[in-house]
């Protein structure tokens, strides 16, 4: 039993959560993560004002994350005492609100279609919505590279790490991970404002992502060019500053047989990033291939958890 859930129940709820996400997509109104993000913004403005910014950032993390995790645990635990079926439904809803599989598809495949149609202006506009790099003068290879990198990296953050923590901790586990990951995305920058304040948020996200990121990289390798993915993972991942993005994107690029990484413009400055993968530069078609890899990895994870559920039942 995991937090009151059997392995079989976890398998069924994971499948239900993914199906809800693919059928409904992100909630367009009253999404819990939007409300959480607004709270995090207010907390950061209030506490990131001087003094020991690392300690203040840690205190801010505790203040904004802990209450929601405790509420999720108390709610699911309390409901399980009175109506087990309703409690299971809450677990599934918490997973649904935390997943981003359909969002990945809906934000990246239009870029692929625009590039394949030769509509560079539309591709630039769509890519700018999902990445922080400058796309105003980007050509097809740069836009395709950005789309593939976003799919591979966010496939881990928005899908596979989310499923991993749901498997370990049910609804409360997935709430803990998704909120921690959101704070890393908001505060985990090496800028003058966030370098110290967001350091704890970044390190917590690194820890929570450490195992699932490597499982994701392994899954990409198994479902693509395995030998090439493994070679790129070993050779290229250590060069990346992120301990988790490196394995995920290098293995994914190697599995797809394309070259990613390299130069990109951020805030008007050219940044030379370490190479990822090997082979030709990415094209619009490779975004669709990357989406298929993420989709197949999702199917693989669901299949494995269902097999485990049947076995332990």
From TrEMBL:
Biochemical pathway: Cofactor biosynthesis; adenosylcobalamin biosynthesis
Annotated membrane topology: Multi-pass membrane protein
Keyword Cell cycle attached: no
Domain of life: Bacteria
Keywords, sorted A to Z: Cell membrane, Cobalamin biosynthesis, Membrane, Transmembrane, Transmembrane helix
Compartments where found: Cell membrane
Pfam families linked to this entry: CobD_Cbib
Membrane-crossing residue ranges in chain numbering: 51-75, 82-99, 158-180, 293-312
PANTHER family, per database record: COBALAMIN BIOSYNTHESIS PROTEIN CBIB
Physiological role: Converts cobyric acid to cobinamide by the addition of aminopropanol on the F carboxylic group.
Family, per entry: Belongs to the CobD/CbiB family.
Protein name: Cobalamin biosynthesis protein CobD
Annotated source species: Herminiimonas glaciei
